[in-house]
């Protein structure tokens, strides 16, 4: 893309017109599908990794990962996603006003803030990892992999996974899709080769002592993709391919030591940290509830079989059920992109329409995925050959775990939309209230079941009730936003009646003019 300001303004204007005037379903799918494909790719990586490790280590993989995956999500995924969302919202306002220079400056602040936080978190997690391993009884086979992901996860998630947020703001949807696909191909190729070569060649008698192929695949994949994204953010491409970045930053400017400790940088670090922590609280609730359930099962259940079945229920809900959280997250990415510009243009009715149709999309697609899990042996494909799992299928609650995960996954779109609206409009108290209610629900439900039901407790209900709590609270706030937007729509509706005869072409022209004149 050229650096000519007029061309930049023209492209942004066209982008804004698409967000504000085209069919809502078409717009949501156009911006959501790349995230859906990228998310499905990540889920596929997790499923493939589970297949290899269960084949090698048996069901001890489930016991270990029922604790490690939630902790990794809390410490290395939630915070990077939160500060990226805050960056998207701030940059979205700037881009809707064609302030590309300020958007580039904001990306510098975001990058420096993320790097400083990554260093702090890396040092902190490295010193704390031993405590976590002992507390949650993580097996020796999985400890190295856990420590590596815990120490470096914040950094690589910020410069790999979370970069999709920037690409989305720049309307570089193909790049969002490519990032997810490339990550999947590299990881799956390395992990599959290592496990098949070392495990398959020597037979089951010579079992590996750790899941080092997964660790190696993680390190190499993240090294390649993180380096690629860092260079891409500075405008470097392979073979001279022209890129479509709306704002470009040089590596020298991004990582200048002098600018790291400037007054503006330190202020931005404080802002991103505060807002990131506030926005992270809500997304920490579910993995926290999973950890509470696993710990309660390990301390209150007597029978080894009951412990295994109970933890496997939780594992299937959270690990295999992660596919149900892809659709709400992806649709919300499109919603954030469009709602920022719609608010700038006072298109309140369109925001209400996006909320309704976004919910319908999540409901329909998660319903289809749930039916696939019911009628196709998806879980069996990845862990069905294990003898312990065959026994679990008789006594466990696999179908209920998937059903519960599908239900709350569809409802999660309400939470995602409520959180996004609250942040866009600076109503952070909304996200805090939803988060506090969700965390209190998880703690009280877990404690109540542990105290009153002992080793007969059904901890799947804790996860179900915890998610339903946030869904219900989010629904209340969305209704309040609906009422607010309906009030704003009165003036918009009057203006539409006056200009109705001008047709769709004139409508697009007006939107283009509004954006161009900002």
Automatic annotation (TrEMBL):
Metal-binding among keywords: no
Taxonomic superkingdom: Eukaryota
InterPro entries in the cross-refs: MATE_MepA_subfamily
Region annotated Disordered, chain positions: 493-518
Protein location: Cell membrane
Record field: compositional bias (Basic residues): 496-508
Gene Ontology cellular component terms for the protein in this record: plasma membrane
Spans through the membrane: 28-50, 62-89, 109-131, 143-162, 174-195, 216-239, 272-294, 358-382, 402-421, 428-447, 459-483
Membrane topology: Multi-pass membrane protein
Keyword line: Cell membrane, Membrane, Transmembrane, Transmembrane helix
Listed name of the protein: Transmembrane domain-containing protein
């Amino acid at each position: 893309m050229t650096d000519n300001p007029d061309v930049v303004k023209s492209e942004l204007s066209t982008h804004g017109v698409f967000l504000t005037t085209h069919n809502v379903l078409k717009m949501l799918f156009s911006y959501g599908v790349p995230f859906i494909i990228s998310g499905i790719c990540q889920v596929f990586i997790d499923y493939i990794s589970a297949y290899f490790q269960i084949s090698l280590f048996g069901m001890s993989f489930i016991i270990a990962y029922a604790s490690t995956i939630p902790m990794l999500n809390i410490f290395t995924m939630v915070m990077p996603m939160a500060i990226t969302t805050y960056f998207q919202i701030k940059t979205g306002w700037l881009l809707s006003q064609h302030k590309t220079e300020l958007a580039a400056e904001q990306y510098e602040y975001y990058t420096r803030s993320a790097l400083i936080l990554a260093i702090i978190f890396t040092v902190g997690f490295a010193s704390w990892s031993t405590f976590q391993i002992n507390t949650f009884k993580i097996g020796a086979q999985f400890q190295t992999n856990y420590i590596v992901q815990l120490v470096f996860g914040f950094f690589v998630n910020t410069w790999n996974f979370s970069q999709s947020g920037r690409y989305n703001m720049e309307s570089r949807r193909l790049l969002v899709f490519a990032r997810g696909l490339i990550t999947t191909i590299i990881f799956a190729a390395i992990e599959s080769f290592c496990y098949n070569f070392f495990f398959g060649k020597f037979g089951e008698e010579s079992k590996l002592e750790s899941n080092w192929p997964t660790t190696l695949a993680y390190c190499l994949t993240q090294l390649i993709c993180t380096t690629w994204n860092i260079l891409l953010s500075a405008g470097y491409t392979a073979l001279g391919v022209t890129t479509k970045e709306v704002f470009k930053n040089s590596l020298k400017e991004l990582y200048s030591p002098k600018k790291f400790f400037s007054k503006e940088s330190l202020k931005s670090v404080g802002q991103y940290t505060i807002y990131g922590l506030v926005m992270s609280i809500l997304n920490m609730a579910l993995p926290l509830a999973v950890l509470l359930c696993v710990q309660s099962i390990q301390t209150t259940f007597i029978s080894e079989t009951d412990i295994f079945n109970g933890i496997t229920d939780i594992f299937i809900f959270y690990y295999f059920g992660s596919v149900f959280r892809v659709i709400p997250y992806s649709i919300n990415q499109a919603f954030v992109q469009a709602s920022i510009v719609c608010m700038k243009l006072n298109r309140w009715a369109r925001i209400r329409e996006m909320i309704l149709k976004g919910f319908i999309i999540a409901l329909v697609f998660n319903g289809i995925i749930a039916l696939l899990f019911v009628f196709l042996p998806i879980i069996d494909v990845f862990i069905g050959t294990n003898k312990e799992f065959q026994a679990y299928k008789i006594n466990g609650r696999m179908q209920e775990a998937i059903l519960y995960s599908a239900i709350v996954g569809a409802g999660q779109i309400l939470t995602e939309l409520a959180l996004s609206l609250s942040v866009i409009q600076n109503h952070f108290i909304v996200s805090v209230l939803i988060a506090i209610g969700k965390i209190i629900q998880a703690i009280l439900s877990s404690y109540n079941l542990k105290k009153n039901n002992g080793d007969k407790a059904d901890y799947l209900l804790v996860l179900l009730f915890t998610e339903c709590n946030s869904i219900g609270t989010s629904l209340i706030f969305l209704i309040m936003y609906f009422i607010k937007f309906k009030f704003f729509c009165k003036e918009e509706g009057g203006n539409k009646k006056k200009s109705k005869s001008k047709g769709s072409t004139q409508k697009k022209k007006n939107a283009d003019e509004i954006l161009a004149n900002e």
